[in-house]
Amino acid sequence: MTSKFHRFFAGPSHSLLPLVLLGGVIGILSGLVMVSFLSLLNLTLGWLNGANLEDFESLSPWWRLGLPVLGSLLLILLYRLTPVSGQTVGLAYVLERLQFGRGQLPAANTAFQFMAALIALGTGHSVGREGPAVHLGAGIASLLGQYTDRPPSQLRLLIGCGTAAAISAAFNTPLAGVLFAMEVVLMEYSLLGFAPIIAAAISASAFSGALLGPHAVLEPVRLSLAGYGDIPSLLLTGLWVGLVAVLFHYLVRLFLRFPIKGRAVRLLLAGLITGGLALFVPQILGSGYDTINATLSHQLPWLLLLLILGAKLIATAAAIGLGVPGGQIAPMLMLGVCAGGVAGALVPGASEPGLYALLGMAAMMGAVLHAPLAALATVLELSLSAEAMFPAMTVVLTANLVCQHGFRQPSLLLTLLKERGRLLQTHPLRTALAQRYLSELASFRFSDFDIGTDDNLGAVLERKLPWVVVRQGEHSYLVEGEALEQVYRPWLQQQELTLQQVLAPLLGANRRLLELSADASLLTAIKTLQQEETAGFLLPVGRQGLGLVTRRRLVTMLTTDDPIH
Question: Looking at domain 2-212, what is its CATH homologous superfamily?
Answer without folding.
Answer: Clc chloride channel (1.10.3080.10)
